[in-house]
């Protein structure tokens, strides 16, 4: 067992390992007989995910298979070598495949990051299905979740979150899981620094040239809010766990759309009881 893996069960047993296991158990992410493709981008999140999945395979009490899948979307030779070196250092048996995703995304003048994400996701789903995997494990963490909530509100005019698991709409039999769902990014950074590990950042030229993104803006906003409200991150997270449908103007589930006026015309629901909507004199 190498130092980085050992530290997950020692120095980071509470902050990382416990929250990793809690995510799996709370959201029922892994079952006996699963064949899971762990998707490796080469960054800190996916590399930690790989090590946690290996550890859970040893000690989690669940019988499942792992495949460590990496896509080269058009990295430089130096970046590809960095990913391969880190995988070897961390004892991750990586399978890497080359694609031309960056080339396609960079030709898109509008929303290249969205296109890049879509193309990469589609390729990974297809590859996972091809090699007989029923699940894909992604390295999204707690901070990705709360940033997605705020981005939806501020830029998308909608209340939604990044789900801990979901079925692929286009690839039958493939399910996406996010085992780092309750792990904080600051603890991932700390784990990498503690072990002297250096991982790649986003290697896309579009991101390098722009220097900013909506997600970065939201990340900075949350950091600013934390200065006066240390609980703001958990409050954002719990906001999508404690949704009261009686206080929403409208909502939908798939194509089923509901508006509050549908019930209001027949009477207002207050504390579980219907009352007359007409004004009453005392």
Give structural notes.
The chain is α/β, with parallel strands linked by helices and 282 residues long. It has a single domain (3-142, 153-210), classed as HUPs (Rossmann fold, 3-Layer(aba) Sandwich). The protein has helices at 3-9, 13-26, 44-59, 77-89, 101-106, 112-130, 142-156, 185-194, 205-210, 214-226, 232-239, 261-264; strands at 35-40, 65-72, 94-98, 135-137, 165-167, 175-177, 250-253, 256-259, 268-270, 273-275. It has a 6-stranded mixed sheet, with helices on both faces. Strand 7 (250-253) and strand 8 (256-259) form a beta hairpin. Helix 7 (142-156) packs across helix 11 (232-239).
Comma- or semicolon-separated keywords:
two-stranded antiparallel ribbon; 12 helices; 282 residues; disordered C terminus; alpha/beta; 6-stranded mixed beta sheet; Rossmann fold; single chain
Itemize the secondary structure elements and their pairings:
Layout: H1 3-9, H2 13-26, E1 35-40, H3 44-59, E2 65-72, H4 77-89, E3 94-98, H5 101-106, H6 112-130, E4 135-137, H7 142-156, E5 165-167, E6 175-177, H8 185-194, H9 205-210, H10 214-226, H11 232-239, E7 250-253, E8 256-259, H12 261-264, E9 268-270, E10 273-275
Parallel strand pairs: 1-2, 1-4, 2-3, 4-6
Antiparallel strand pairs: 5-6, 7-8, 9-10
Helix pairs in contact: 7-10, 7-11
